[in-house]
Amino acid sequence: MDSSLHLLFISVFFLLRIHPGSSQNGTISEPDYRSLLSLKREFVDLRGVLKGWNDTSPEEACKTWIGIKCADGRVVFIRLPWKGLGGGISERIGELKHLRILSLHDNALQGPLPQSLGRLPNLRGVFLFNNRLSGSVPSSIGNSPALQVLDLSNNRLDGFIPHSIASNSTRLYRLNLSYNDFSGLIPIDLCHSPSLVFIALQHNNISGQIPDEFGAKKVNASYKLQSLALDHNILSGKFPSSLSELVTLRDINLSHNRIAGGLPDELGSLSALSSLDLSNNEMSGPIPEAVGMLTNLSVLNLSSNRFAGGIPGSVRNIGGLTSLDFSGNSLTGEIPKSLANLSNLVSLDLSYNNLSGAVPSALVQRFNSSSFVGNKQLCGYSNMNTCSTETNPRNESQPSSSSSSSSSSPHDHQKSLAKDIIFTAAALILLFLLLICCVLLCCLFRKRVRNKSMKMKHQQQQQPIRRRRSEGEPGYETGGKLVHFDGPFVFTADDLLSATAEILGKSAYGTTYKAVLEDNNEVIVKRLREKLAKPNKEFENEVSHLGRIRHPNLLSLRAYYLGPKGEKLLVYDHISNGSLASFLHGKGPENAIPWTVRLNIAIGIARGLSHLHIEQNTLHGNLNSSSILLDERNSPKIADFGLSRLMSTSSTTGDAVATAGTVGYRAPELSKPKNSASAATTKTDVFSLGVIMLELLTGKSPGEEEANNGVDLPLWVASVKEEEWSGEVFDAGLKSEADLGDHRFHNTLKLAMTCVDPSPAARPEAGEVARKLHQTWHGGDGDEEEDEEKPKPL
Ligand SMILES: *[C@@H]1O[C@H](CO)[C@@H](O)[C@H](O)[C@H]1NC(C)=O
Ligand SMILES: *[C@@H]1O[C@H](CO)[C@@H](O)[C@H](O)[C@H]1NC(C)=O
Ligand SMILES: *[C@@H]1O[C@H](CO)[C@@H](O)[C@H](O)[C@H]1NC(C)=O
Ligand SMILES: *[C@@H]1O[C@H](CO)[C@@H](O)[C@H](O)[C@H]1NC(C)=O
Ligand SMILES: *[C@@H]1O[C@H](CO)[C@@H](O)[C@H](O)[C@H]1NC(C)=O
Ligand SMILES: *[C@@H]1O[C@H](CO)[C@@H](O)[C@H](O)[C@H]1NC(C)=O
Ligand SMILES: *[C@@H]1O[C@H](CO)[C@@H](O)[C@H](O)[C@H]1NC(C)=O
Ligand SMILES: *[C@@H]1O[C@H](CO)[C@@H](O)[C@H](O)[C@H]1NC(C)=O
Ligand SMILES: *[C@@H]1O[C@H](CO)[C@@H](O)[C@H](O)[C@H]1NC(C)=O
Ligand SMILES: *[C@@H]1O[C@H](CO)[C@@H](O)[C@H](O)[C@H]1NC(C)=O
Ligand SMILES: *[C@@H]1O[C@H](CO)[C@@H](O)[C@H](O)[C@H]1NC(C)=O
Ligand SMILES: *[C@@H]1O[C@H](CO)[C@@H](O)[C@H](O)[C@H]1NC(C)=O
């Protein structure tokens, strides 16, 4: 599939818009042309990226100018990220009345944001992050009614955030003003936006209270906010209880502010909340039992506040909690034993409180002393502070003299030795040494902290931007619809449509592209052949099933897009190492692939397939080595599964191929005359799995044409006498391993041959293949790894 990688860079937008028959006016309009030339004049283009933008050729502008996309002679995209551009952005950008996307992120642009940006009626996406823009944000920017994404993060912008920023942009989805020098208050209008999903204002100098207006009940519309990042500002006041009415919230980060007061009980209604970070504030009072109602929480950080009282026992109800940090408060009482029931907890920090009693032994086994230090009356978490039992009270009051380095009260120590001058002197010297150590450490630490914070802005410039997940969020696109399943980042329909795309391959079902989104995240986009796909409603039913399938060996479907003209796009994770086909057949003989790598690939595929068959009741239908992708550790991910479910069953002539698998991998019963019910089954998938195993063992490609080094693999292997297997059959890269007469290679080959048995009934199920492979090579029954996949014995 991807063996012939076309080096063709286009935008997904154009894949959709340019239909045969729709006329395209190539010549740029006069005002747009003048505007682009003014933009160029104000940029400082040291690398000469914009050399081609010259005034000799208006008719070329839309066709060849780098970074420009037009529609009907009007500029719709300017995309010039990572181009080393300096200088400023010309005011005359305001003449590009049809501009939809302005993307100049990761350059060295200076000066103010053009006022005229707010006069662009079609503007949807503004990506100017990672530059050196300064001055304030023009208040007119909120006037662009189509605006969906405004990302000005990591610049040197200052002044107030304009109140109108969200009031006229009823489609604003993501607002990112983080890492600037904004001051003043959080604009109340932000709280009224019916469309905002992400608000990122962290690392500024924003003061005042968090507006109480955030509560959804006070505003009427459907509030969609999922992520609220306000950390590293100077916000004060209380934690507004109205915030808890935003039941869609997933992430709240208020760390490093000056928020005081208690945590309201109402918090418990944030049932979707998955991370809550209130660390480094001035909050006080008890931690309410209501935190136990946050059952979807995975990160809870209340460290460095003034919370008092006990650790609420209800915390045990948060089964998915992975990280819990209550350190640096004034919590008292014992550590509830039930904390040990949090089986997913990987990080626990209760240090520096006033907790007392014995640490539950189940916790001591899982967490080391750094989770508990700094609680004077807490014991039993390390050898040095065993709990004083009734028989041995001295143990606590008089720690052995050798432990003075960890003792937190050197005064007692000194007193008890006062009689003996020598010992006193020794203790004093020790103390003195300790002090010097402390001072040295302090200096070192502060230096490091300073270095770190200086690096912070710098790093921000290089790191790929990760976006938070979103689920079931329809995007706002002209007539189109984008639906996300869970995933590592979220994008709008416009992000997707304006992505740069590169064709990876074509198949019976459609064309596959690699698309690079505005923030440099990569996804795989599959455009289905419209004529073959099911009608929208049925399609959505089926695709939402596929979107829920998650397994380490199955490629995750992250989103789908339905275009206004019936276009259907599927968006998948991008996997770095390409397909198994190119991995196996695209290398020279000098790059022999070791058997362990091949074996892991085979086991992974069998497991993925088994999960698909048994847990998901879904067939693959077209398994071949091009539809197996490898990640950076060469762990396989099966792609393209279940696509036949998205296709209409009334496939007309010629499309039969689409449902019957790829030549070379197709089970014999599928090639029989059409009279019989020759439909795909789990056994036809297993046949394809068998062929892939043969491919891994022999290194040969089961191609369509004999001329192309392709062979009918099952037939070919069967034709070689079993006694001659080692010499003839195995891949040259494996011969040295297989030649040793290792019977396990023979057993594996036999297993593959049963998978390609002409009789479907003789073929094993995929789960059995996985288990046998594991047994043969890793011993045991391999059950521990397969438990989850094999609920029922076969
Ligand atoms: C093409 O665009 C130019 C400039 O905007 C305009 O003058 C011309 O009429 C357009 N032609 C068509 C066929 O739309
Ligand atoms: C103008 O740009 C075109 C490419 O767009 C290039 O071929 C041509 O040489 C340039 N002309 C001048 C005068 O730089
Ligand atoms: C906002 O921008 C910062 C810095 O560029 C980035 O780290 C963060 O992920 C962005 N957040 C959102 C929600 O876009
Ligand atoms: C919103 O748009 C309307 C019409 O363009 C304008 O009159 C109004 O002043 C705008 N509101 C803000 C707060 O800019
Ligand atoms: C932040 O704001 C405070 C007052 O609100 C001001 O004193 C301080 O200088 C500001 N800091 C920066 C870095 O702008
Ligand atoms: C929101 O309130 C406005 C008037 O304040 C009203 O016109 C609109 O219908 C309300 N929307 C909903 C969803 O209740
Ligand atoms: C909150 O923000 C701080 C600083 O930006 C970051 O270190 C921390 O990981 C964030 N918390 C969560 C839960 O994401
Ligand atoms: C719980 O949080 C996860 C993200 O961590 C999210 O995918 C899921 O939808 C949330 N569950 C609910 C019920 O909101
Ligand atoms: C909690 O927040 C503090 C301060 O922001 C941070 O140092 C600490 O690492 C966080 N805890 C966890 C477990 O992330
Ligand atoms: C902790 O889990 C065990 C079994 O998993 C259960 O018996 C016990 O009641 C639980 N304790 C609490 C406090 O929930
Ligand atoms: C916690 O301990 C500190 C010093 O160890 C003490 O000053 C403080 O009063 C204690 N707080 C409570 C609530 O016991
Ligand atoms: C405790 O374990 C953490 C990692 O889980 C490690 O970073 C830390 O250094 C350990 N502390 C001690 C005192 O062993």
From TrEMBL:
State any GO CC term. Answer: plasma membrane
Extent of Low complexity compositional bias? 400-409
Q: Where in the cell is it found?
A: Cell membrane
One GO biological process this protein is involved in is: defense response
| Stretch forming the signal peptide | 1-23
Q: What keywords would UniProt list here?
A: Cell membrane, Glycoprotein, Leucine-rich repeat, Membrane, Repeat, Signal, Transmembrane, Transmembrane helix
Matching InterPro entries: Kinase-like_dom_sf, Leu-rich_rpt, Leu-rich_rpt_typical-subtyp, LRR_dom_sf, LRR_N_plant-typ, LRR_R13L4/SHOC2-like, Prot_kinase_dom, Ser-Thr/Tyr_kinase_cat_dom
Q: Which PANTHER family did the record assign?
A: LEUCINE-RICH REPEAT RECEPTOR-LIKE PROTEIN KINASE IMK3-RELATED, PROBABLY INACTIVE LEUCINE-RICH REPEAT RECEPTOR-LIKE PROTEIN KINASE IMK2
This protein is called what?
Protein kinase domain-containing protein
